[in-house]
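Sample 1 of the test manifest.
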Amino acid sequence: MSIDLGLPGLRSGIEGVPTFDGEQNAKEYTSDQEVRWCPGCGDYAVLKAVQGFLPQLGLRRENIVFVSGIGCSSRFPYYLDTYGMHSIHGRAPSIATGIATAREDLSVWVVTGDGDALSIGGNHLIHALRRNVNMTILLFNNRIYGLTKGQYSPTSEAGKITKSTPMGSVDHPFNPVSLALGAEGTFVARTIDSDRRHLTSVLSAAAAHRGTSFVEIYQNCPIFNDGAFDAIKGQDTKADAIIPLEDGQPIRFGAPDPSGQGAKGLVRDTETGGVKVALVADVGEDAILVHDAHNPDPTMAFAISRLTDAGYLSQSPIGIFRQVERPTYDDQARAQVATARDAVDGTPTERLAALIGGGDTWTVV
Amino acid sequence: MTTTVPKQVKQVDRVIIRFAGDSGDGMQLTGDRFTQESAAFGNDLVTLPNFPAEIRAPQGTLPGVSSFQVHFADHDILTAGDAPDVLVAMNPAALKANLGDLPRGATIIVDTHDFTDRNLTKAGYTSNPLETLGDANDSAPGSLGEFVVHPVDLTGMTVAAVKQFGLTRKDAARAKNMFALGLLSWMYGRPTETTITFLEKRFARVEDIRDANIAAFKAGWNFGETTETFVVQYEVKPAPMAPGTYRNISGNLALAYGLVAGSVQTGLDIVLGSYPITPASDILHELSKHKAFGVTTFQAEDEIAGIGAAIGASFSGKLGVTSTSGPGIALKSEAIGLAVMTELPLVVVDVQRGGPSTGLPTKTEQADLLQAMFGRNGEAPVPIVAPQSPGDCFDAALEAIRIAVTYRTPVMLLSDGYLANGSEPWRVPDLEDLPAIDPGFATVKNHGADEDGQPTEFWPYLRDDETLARPWAIPGTPGLEHRIGGLEKGDGHGNISYDPANHDLMVRTRQAKIDRIADSLRPLEVDDPSGRARVLVVGWGSTYGPIGAGVRRVRAAGYHVAQVHLRHLNPFPKDLGEILKRYDKVLVPEMNLGQLALLLRGKYLVDAIGYNHVRGLPLKATELALAIGHLVSEAEGIEVDLGVHGLTTPQEVS
């Protein structure tokens, strides 16, 4: 799969962040702390990919900040030799908003999980997306609570039997991509922990995007929810399970037909107004949807996101759903401050004296 | 303006006026204008706005009554006054709601226009109290027999006065507050220019409304001048004040200015993360106007995001501030704990209001002290600073910033609703007197040594020997990359540590750091002029005014009492314990059920005696004087009779 690296002519997500001219490598981005995830955890793969990817950004390491909340994935910042904060449950997007707004010269990353971002921190997530603060949010979705040892999460399938739901959960799960699109996220993507190439390419596009980049990463928890993503990872099953989204390309998947392309494709569903899977042989190539990530209207991206199984995952669109331009909160907030500053003369002390001595005053001699 | 009735001019040393009307009647504006006129005239003054939480409660009802009390004097005063000398009541509900606060003989000016059956019923009157005026036998509860009542058709006269501007009847009647202001301005010889200038500016875009308001204001003045209803004009001379430039200022405005001053003095831009909440929102509003000072205001999605953004900003090297009231503090508690653990500078402003839960949003209280002190999980000490008057909010904000930046810690700034909305003349400080505060960012490594003796590592939890503050290394500083967070830190290196001995050490170290702030505090000023007092009154926050006024009354009656007021509630000043032990009795007046008293008892084993009211209003000086007198009597074994100083009525001077 190839990835679109952003719309030409737009400000990049890392513009304003000082660059590093020399060579950097993954080792420099690795902290001296022992990594303490369970053996086989999908987090290792994501950490390796990020440590390998960050040097490619060519930024000064001291100008990169990782912020996390609470949960297994939120230990992430400790393992990167950048600036970082392991904060409190669910609040990382708000802290990152403060950092991104305060400093244009920082590349800001949030690492979160399905519980952290979608349960306790749901409000901050949707408001970060709404404001379009320039940062990248990596949501590690393992569809389970790992750190608290195995309760169902807001992305667990209904009926999930866990320690806290011995008769099965009765909660309807969130589809993180649908949620992000509903909040009008300007960059919404989904990738997989074990597909390093795809993961890295999505990270590149996310970093290049100016605004809130939301990346859901399917991540396996070998202890409490092992095999949750087997269908999209299995060599025999993934062709039918992954619906690949590539900008400008017809959305086709499944076992190849004689032309070498997937025998299945996405077409408009005239009955529901949504999107459905059809055999290309039945509907003809022209009926197959061509993916347009830059469509200002999120309707089609949302319709595609609905093809994600809410129950056991046997089918899921993977790739960049949406990538559109919208002014960012932090750029505009800084611009207002800059405009106000440009409009005044005098030292801060002189202006402070004028401020506090203003209004209706009188003098006693 | 010509005089047709000979008027008598009486000099008084102080007057308390309360303007009361429906919440849509513009009483806050009227009171504010009267205050500005009095300030311009040179009186000392203190104000007490009092309004319902509802924006427009049902018209004409008791819950919809809004009032503004102003106390002005020819001498230094400390409170908005216990009981009004004059009540201006714009409708039956305003009369009924405020009557109970008036002392016998008080003057009442009533707008008769709204005394209709319908409005009387709405206010809960079964008959019109104005109809029995002058009836010598009228002594029924709620009657007006013991007051000097002036029934005036303020609305009717206003409508007549503004007829030429062709307004609708409703718009014309709305200028009645300016008519009332004009009348009161005449009665007390207030300068009128500032109000006319104000009206010209405020309604610059709507000519007819502007002209109508000015005309109503002048008509009110002229009415006082010409009518026989009012035969006495009062004079309250300017109060002697220390030389300087003065302005009238409310607590929220002074607090916002203090934050901006702190930004200038530290060289750090402010990032305010805040969620609208009464009575703190004005701080957000005010700071949003000061972007030219580098102030960023972030109106967050909730209280937690507000403080989250402030913490993020502090981590980035800015001055993170969050402003709220008690319910907001409850939501921010976990994040305050994070700031304690990460040891980042942060100012948390709590403009206290009546609680618990939603409580009394527009009323004042001091019941968040223990929440500020202890309202977090774990041992999480937070310094607490409290202003004592509206103008003092400026200095208190600056002090909170000094502590936050110097000691790398969140600081609680405990204001309250009375300070926030109340106002007083404030001497504009000379900026050269303000402290310079050095953020002292870390720029170089601080641990280990290479062959040349140069440090090889950065340890984010190595501490300053004197303050125990940790280095503040901000992103963008090469070589100092580090990770902080809510998990327990290893001493020095700051990596995660679950070691039992380390946790014990870190808990004690965080406490010791806060305790060390006391080293930087000036000795307390104990006000004990005779040196013979055996009773000490200890207060904090906005009770300063009422306590001071109560203490003055007791002294004026010839008795001895000492007063000390605390700016710092955590840590306490070092000499507090010794001071407490010097006195036989310690009285602690608070607008809560004894929170400071609990702390003093716990720390100093002193028998602190509480004086507690939680009525949503400031303590009353007279009641405090009586309580102090009672203790003086016990401590000295004497009879105490405060005489006239135990009464609420003001003294006339000849």
